[in-house]
Design brief:
two-stranded antiparallel ribbon, 234 residues, alpha+beta, 4 domains, 23% helix, rod-shaped, Membrane-associated protein, putative, EGF, four-stranded antiparallel beta sheet
Length: 234
């Protein structure tokens, strides 16, 4: 029952009680005369109607339960009670059909601006990395959702994820191949390459040597023979 209805019920009880007391002080009885019979009867009937629970559904919107006050469903006032709204004083009901902004009743913990026009439409549209009705749950990083298949582990909270890559992979999400290739890690004179960067092993053709097979290995008279040689092979 809303505060407004509780107040009206108390007022009617006071009116009926005051009428009877006035009659007694005047030396009469509490029974009204014919003139006041209809009025008193009408007051008692109204009081009885207000005391009876009429049809008015309870509807849940997220974590806020809305309950109509006594009256028909179309005439009742939907209220959100104190125990479900922390920013409301005790024994205070809120008409959820007024045009208060969602920010008046909904907190998204600075991770989203509440959206919606009326209270029944209020919801938090969370920023990246946050979830929950009030955007107060930070999402943890996972290898499945935040890293490439080349990751072996993920740490941190979204959007600041740290992926630990397998040796064959690199990059912030382990999506860049780290396997050595002849084109990228050896000269054009390598016949094969093995390993993962930065530890690449280039296998050179016989005429070439060096870490990346970029140094000529062909024999020369100057380097491989004495000054009396006229030629060299190999």
């Amino acid at each position: 029952m809303s505060t407004r209805i509780r107040g009206n019920t108390s007022s009617l009880i006071v009116v009926a009680s005051s009428f009877c007391n006035a009659r007694r002080r005047a030396g009469g009885t509490a029974t009204p005369t014919a003139r006041f019979d209809f009025a008193l009867l009408s007051l008692l009937q109204l009081l009885l109607l207000l005391m009876l629970p009429l049809s008015c559904p309870t509807v849940a919107y997220g974590e806020v339960t809305l309950e109509c006050s006594r009256g028909t469903a179309s005439q009742g006032v939907a209220v959100a009670h104190k125990e479900l709204l922390d920013d409301v004083d005790d024994d205070t009901d809120i008409n959820i059909f007024d045009e208060r902004t969602c920010a008046d009743i909904l907190s998204c913990n600075s991770h989203s601006a509440p959206t919606g026009t009326y209270n029944i439409d209020c919801r938090c549209s969370c920023d990246e990395g946050w979830e929950g009705p009030n955007c107060d749950i930070q999402q943890q990083c996972t290898t499945v959702n935040d890293c490439h298949g080349g990751a072996i582990n993920a740490s941190g909270n979204r959007p600041n994820c740290d992926c630990t890559c397998q040796p064959e992979w690199t990059g912030s999400s382990c999506n860049v191949s780290n396997v050595c290739t002849i084109t990228d890690d050896c000269s054009g004179w390598a016949s094969n390459v093995t390993g993962n960067r930065p530890n690449c092993g280039c296998t050179c053709q016989p005429e070439w040597t060096g870490v990346s097979c970029n140094v000529s290995n062909v024999c020369t008279v100057d380097h491989d023979c004495s000054g009396n040689a006229t030629g060299v092979s190999g």
